[in-house]
Design brief:
The complex is a heterodimer of chains A (about 350) and B (about 800).
Chain A: H1 2-18, H2 22-33, H3 38-44, H4 54-89, H5 109-123, E1 127-128, E2 134-136, H6 137-140, E3 174-176, H7 182-191, E4 195-204, E5 216-226, H8 231-246, E6 252-256, E7 262-271, E8 287-296, H9 298-303, E9 312-319, H10 320-328, H11 341-344
Parallel strand pairs in A: 1-4
Antiparallel strand pairs in A: 2-3, 4-5, 5-9, 6-7, 7-8, 8-9
Chain B: E1 2-4, H1 5-8, H2 19-29, E2 33-39, E3 47-56, E4 64-69, E5 76-80, E6 90-94, E7 109-111, E8 114-116, E9 119-120, H3 148-151, E10 156-161, H4 175-186, E11 209-211, E12 217-226, H5 236-244, H6 252-264, E13 269-272, E14 281-285, E15 291-293, E16 299-301, E17 307-310, E18 315-318, E19 322-323, E20 335-343, H7 345-354, H8 360-365, H9 373-388, E21 393-394, E22 399-402, E23 409-413, H10 415-422, H11 428-437, E24 441-445, E25 448-453, H12 455-458, H13 465-476, H14 497-512, E26 516-517, E27 523-524, H15 526-531, E28 540-541, E29 552-553, H16 558-568, E30 575-584, E31 594-605, H17 616-630, E32 639-640, E33 648-656, E34 661-666, H18 668-673, E35 679-687, H19 688-697, E36 711-720, H20 725-736, E37 740-750, E38 758-767, H21 776-792, E39 796-798
Parallel strand pairs in B: 11-14, 26-30
Antiparallel strand pairs in B: 1-10, 2-10, 3-4, 3-6, 4-5, 6-9, 7-8, 12-20, 12-21, 12-22, 13-20, 14-17, 15-16, 17-18, 18-19, 23-25, 24-25, 27-29, 28-29, 30-31, 31-35, 32-33, 33-34, 34-35, 36-38, 36-39, 37-38
Classes of the chains: A alpha+beta (about 350), B alpha+beta (about 800).
The complex binds zinc ion.
Zinc ion (ZN) binds near residues 281 and 282 of chain A.
């Protein structure tokens, strides 16, 4: 009987290993371990053995039975895994078929850049300020230390609502603001010093439209007034702004620039990000003029009831339209105000 | 403006700097130099040649056959047409392959059968002079083979500056000002300007000069000069400097005026003295209708605001702008009156603009020149005149009227404040030294520096201590300033709920409604507004529009968005554009009131569902309702019909709390008119100021969800088609009462088994109570009430 058991065990294990499908395994299981299976009948015949042999052989028979059952289970798992693998391999699913159509939609590139910069400056404690685009002559010029006879006020530079014969001292002339700087005055008059604001918005100049000239464009004005503010703080803000807008730090340099509402006034140049030794964008100079700025003129502080002996400040103005054109390589400024879907779609790939 | 480096070299030593280095110094310390070019560079390929043989051309009378030695191994044959060519002459030679300034390329040629390998040039061909008489003759000691440009000293590096970057600096309108800057930047000595030191004594009968308009002209000086001979060509050196800096030489009298102007910035003007009637000068406003023929030959009708220089009878110059033709220095003039004056900047600018005449003189006067320059320019003129015409006679010291003295301005500068603002550790002594290098006088006065402003900086740009800070900073070098973050602690900025709402709306529009944000002009074309039915007199109007007829300021962004949508139609059969923008309404006085708007325009091809779910109108309505909800506004029922929007379809429109929100299809009249016949166009417009005001109050409140199950009930009603949906929904909501949790229409149709004029509306309803499980009888009760409501509306429940 022992021989019989050992024979069954070795034959059974061999058969199990050779089984190629689950049905085969089931047949082997029935043949060996089923109710009428060979192991089962051996177990049944144990009763016919002498009592002295029974326990040993019984134990052996159980071990054989258990061993075969485990082998069956293991082989079944293997076969299932193989079958799954085969099934997965034969799967005809094309995962590369397209998804459902995207609905489209997106924000204007100028507004995108503007909102990104608003967030950046808000994180540095700047509040966002706004002012009317149709603005008082007083705020657009007088309060900004731009003298009454300054050429910038004339009709060939500024778009006026008020006809010439109704302008002048004591009259409330109205213009389309030529810069976002009047918001400096509005914010300072409203909130006083110390103050940190940025003011994005539209501005207007008397220009004939072409690829590089627009009468309507976007600026972002920054203003900080506090005690002990100097040029290094302005430079830090400008550099931060450039990093925010161009996506990386660029080498910059300050040089003189003149604007009546700041003193000293500056132009900030950044290293041309498009070339190493000169290109069309930087007119072969490797520098791009990016941002005017300066220390707020004491006359402007005074016009806003801020004491220039106690407070100082800086202001800068970023040409958003120009920055957007640089950032995306837009070659014609007229696209920005075109409302053309074929243009607007490009900023949402 | 063009600045010659050779010229600067007269006053400050720049020999150890390349032109580009000088340009960079000025850009970093003074004003941006836009470019560096070398005057005369196009003459570089030309060389000094010698005519070694010269014989008549066998086949042409007027031509000569020459052999020219130009330093090459062999002489070359050249056919020359000039009458003044002769053997032994040193000439300007253009070898084969070289290109003349006019663009002519020299090639090997045959002229009447004779070979010609090069060209002997005239001054005119080299654009050096107007002399057409013959070839340019060089000095006999000129070195054969040497570059012509070098031989003639023609090469001159020239810096180009944009005039706009100099408008605030009256001292930088001549070379001497730039020399002063460079001397300060480099810490070098500025050579004094050679001047006539002493005039002859004043004559017995000084020229009578009268200034009637003291604001327009604060000082006027006239200097009588008698020439030994009529005007003649200037010396080469003067002509070349004028050419290098962009002025055409005319004759020595005019050239010297220009030369002095390019040095000092001060324009002068020479009148032909015999032409001045009554031998006197009056500076006055023009009489109405008075005429003056100016040097350019144009007869100009003067404006009473124009300031003129007149003699006893008539205007002889438009002050500070241009001289008159009658008194122009002519070929035979030998008696001059040389004018040098201080004219008011604004008066000159307006005159120049009025007559469309921006001259070199007016461009300078309008910068508020230093009045002290007037006398300086006369003395410089006299000095130069004595150099080139020792025989010319200054008749007497200049006659003058007015005053050329500038109020001496003193400014107290706090050196510590100066260093703090610039953010550099600059010492008091250094500050003083920088100011002195620019011509300021500086002395200690307690904690401050007591600074005197020189006259050439006092006329415009340096007025207060902060102006001195700029002077110190830019000469010290802005590039030495290192960035530094603000020291004050960062405070959270004031919350801006309006802007945050705007951001949420934008996110919904492009994220949920596939809309693209656009930007449209604030200006409206008059004709476009009229086509849309908007009345022109209801707008803020631009006095000087950017383009004829584009003179209205929009009320809201709808008209421009419509224009953009129509522009897109050909390429894009459907789409949605939106804009957040400002609009304005006219007002009697002061600032026109402003409103912020959100407007969207949606379009699709015509056809498809016309009303109800799936239609363009429904899509637009969904946008509006979504945005209102996004602002936290609770459900509010719209009213049908558009108010106050002539572009809107009068019936296919809804308004919410007018003027808060509006949804409308385009007026059918306009679809035809705008060429949008095959498209359906819808407009959404929301008053953002109003929305912000209402949103501020809206605050959602939490209610615990019911733990009890809901019952889904579908009902269909057959009703007369004239009953508006809103009434049906209202009736159903009343029928549902508090247990009606959700209700929405899922089907709408007419025809089929329905009677004509009837339509069927089918709804999903969800009933749920917060305190119990609803039973069958609750559903029955709802259905009964719905049936009653349907009957009241003239129809009934469908089964
Ligand atoms: Zn570049």
């Amino acid at each position: 009987m022992r021989d019989r058991l050992e024979e069954l065990q070795s034959q059974g294990l061999a058969a199990i290993q050779q089984a190629e499908a689950e049905e085969g395994l089931r047949a082997i299981e029935v043949r060996l371990l089923g109710r009428k299976g060979e192991i089962t009948s051996v177990l049944k015949s144990l009763g016919t053995l002498p009592a002295a042999e029974r326990p040993l052989l019984g134990q052996l028979a159980n071990e054989v039975k258990q061993g075969l059952a485990e082998a069956l289970q293991a082989r079944r798992s293997d076969l299932q895994a193989l079958a799954m693998a085969a099934e997965l391999e034969a799967d005809g699913f094309d995962a590369t078929l397209p998804g459902d159509p995207l609905p489209g939609g997106g924000v204007h590139p100028v507004n995108q850049v503007s909102r990104d910069l608003e967030d950046l400056f808000q994180s540095m404690g700047f509040q966002i300020a706004d002012g009317p685009e149709v603005e008082l002559e007083e705020l657009n010029f007088d309060a900004l230390n731009i003298p009454a006879d300054h050429p910038a006020r004339e009709s060939h530079d500024t778009i006026w609502i008020t006809p010439p014969d109704q302008r002048g001292a004591g009259k409330q002339g109205v213009v389309l603001r030529t810069h976002t700087s009047p918001v400096q005055v509005r914010a300072l008059r409203r909130f006083g010093a110390p103050l940190r604001v940025v003011a994005p918005g539209r501005v207007y100049r008397q220009e004939s439209l072409d690829a590089t000239h627009e009468h309507t464009f976007h600026q972002m004005e920054g203003l900080v007034v506090d005690r002990g503010v100097g040029v290094p703080h302005m430079l830090h803000a400008m550099n931060t702004l450039i990093e925010g807008v161009m996506g990386r730090k660029l080498e910059t340099r300050l040089r003189p620039g003149f604007f009546p509402f700041v003193e000293p006034g500056f132009e900030l140049d950044a290293r041309c990000p498009f070339c190493k030794s000169g290109c069309g964008v930087c007119k072969n100079s490797t520098w791009i003029e990016l941002m005017p700025g300066g220390l707020v003129h004491p006359n402007v502080l005074r016009a806003c009831d801020v004491d220039p002996e106690e407070f100082s400040g800086y202001a800068f103005g970023l040409g958003l339209s120009r920055i957007v054109m640089l950032r995306y390589g837009i070659d014609d400024i007229r696209w920005l105000m075109s409302g053309s879907l074929s243009f607007l779609r490009q900023f949402h790939p | 403006m063009k600045i010659s480096l050779n010229w600067l070299g007269d006053f400050v030593d720049l020999s150890d700097h390349t032109p580009q280095q000088v340009a960079d110094l000025l850009s970093m310390h003074t004003a941006e130099v836009e470019g560096v070019e070398e005057y005369g560079a196009e003459l570089r390929p030309l060389v000094v040649g010698e005519v070694v043989e010269c014989a008549p051309h066998p086949a042409a009378d007027k031509l000569s056959l020459t052999q020219v030695d130009f330093g090459a191994e062999q002489t070359v044959p050249v056919v020359c047409g000039a009458s003044n060519v002769r053997q032994g002459q040193k000439i300007a030679f253009a070898p084969v392959g070289c290109v003349l300034p006019g663009g002519l390329k020299i090639k090997k040629a045959k002229l009447r059968g004779e070979a010609s390998h090069g060209m002997i040039c005239s001054g005119r061909e080299l654009e050096l002079s107007d002399d057409q008489a013959g070839i340019l003759e060089l000095a006999c000691d000129a070195e054969v083979g040497r570059s012509l440009a070098e031989e003639l000293g023609l090469l001159d590096p020239v810096l180009e500056l944009d005039n706009k970057s100099l408008t605030h600096r009256p001292d930088l309108w001549g070379h001497y000002g730039f020399a002063r800057e460079l001397a300060a930047i480099l810490g070098r000595r500025l050579q004094p300007l050679p001047l006539l030191s002493d005039y002859p004594a004043a004559g017995a009968d000084p020229v009578p000069i009268r200034i009637e308009d003291g604001t327009g002209c604060s000082f006027y000086a006239g200097l009588r000069i008698d020439l030994d001979a009529p005007p003649q060509a200037s010396p080469e050196r003067i002509q070349q400097r004028l050419l290098a800096t962009g002025l055409r030489p005319i004759n020595d009298i005019v050239d010297l005026s220009n030369y002095v102007m390019l040095e000092l910035g001060q324009p002068t003007h020479a009148f032909a003295w015999p032409q001045l009637a009554g031998s006197c000068i009056v500076v006055r406003g023009a009489a109405s209708g008075e005429k003056l023929t100016t040097l350019d030959g144009v007869e100009r009708v003067l404006d009473p605001h124009d300031m003129v220089i007149a003699d006893q009878q008539r205007p002889v110059a438009l002050a500070g702008v241009i001289g008159g033709a009658d008194s122009e220095v002519g070929d035979d003039t030998t008696q001059l009156l040389l004018e040098s004056a201080a004219f008011n900047a604004t008066s000159v600018r307006r005159s120049a603009h009025r007559h469309g005449l921006r001259s070199d003189a007016s461009a300078r006067f309008e910068k508020s020149l230093d009045p002290a320059l007037a006398d300086l320019a006369l003395r410089r003129y006299c000095h130069l005149l004595a150099e080139i015409r020792p025989q010319a006679r200054i008749v007497a010291a200049p006659a003058s009227a007015g005053c050329d003295e500038v109020d001496l301005r003193h400014i107290d500068l706090d050196p510590e404040r100066c260093a703090e603002l610039l953010g550099v550790g600059i010492a008091r002594d250094q500050i003083g030294a920088i100011l002195q290098s620019l011509g300021f006088a500086s002395e200690d006065a307690g904690a401050h520096l007591h600074v005197r402003v020189p006259s050439w900086r006092a006329s415009k740009d340096v007025r207060t201590a902060i102006d001195l800070v700029e002077e110190v900073g830019r000469i010290y070098g802005y590039h030495k300033i290192a960035e530094q973050p603000l020291q004050a602690p960062v405070q959270a900025p004031r919350a801006d709920p309006g802007r945050m709402l705007e951001r949420r709306l934008v996110a919904r529009l492009h994220g949920a409604h596939a809309a693209y944000e656009s930007q449209g002009y604030t200006f409206l074309q008059h004709s476009w507004a009229e086509r849309l039915g908007l009345q022109g007199d209801d707008f803020v109007c631009v006095d000087n529009p950017v383009q004829d007829g584009v003179d209205l300021i929009r009320h809201d962004p709808v008209p421009t968005l419509l224009e953009q949508a129509v522009g897109n139609l050909r390429e894009e059969t459907s789409g949605c554009l939106f804009e957040i923008g400002k609009g304005y309404r006219p007002v009697e006085q002061g600032l026109p009131p402003q409103r912020r708007w959100l407007a969207a325009v949606m379009w699709r091809p015509e056809g498809g569902v016309e009303q109800g779910p799936g239609s363009l109108f429904a899509a637009a309505r969904t946008v509006a309702e979504d945005l209102l909800r996004c602002a936290g506004l609770r459900r509010s029922d719209p009213c049908p019909g558009a108010v106050d929007a002539p572009w809107a379809h009068p019936a296919r429109a809804l308004t919410w709390q007018d003027p808060l929100a509006l949804v409308a299809l385009l007026h059918p009249r306009l679809r035809e008119e705008l060429g949008a016949r095959r498209s359906a166009i819808a407009v959404v417009r929301i008053d953002l100021d109003e929305l912000h005001r209402l949103a501020a109050a809206a605050q959602p409140a939490f209610r615990p969800p019911s733990r009890f199950p809901a019952i889904k009930v579908d009902v269909a009603l057959a009703l007369p088609a004239t009953v508006p949906y809103a009434e049906v929904e209202n009736a159903l909501r009343q029928a549902g009462g508090r247990v009606l949790e959700e209700l929405h229409m899922f089907d709408l149709f007419e025809g089929g088994t329905l009677a004509p004029g009837q339509r069927s509306l089918a709804f999903h309803a969800l009933l749920r109570a917060s305190d119990r499980t609803l039973k069958d009888k609750d559903e029955q009760k709802f259905l009964t009430k719905v049936a009653q409501a349907a009957e009241r509306l003239g129809g009934g429940l469908r089964s």
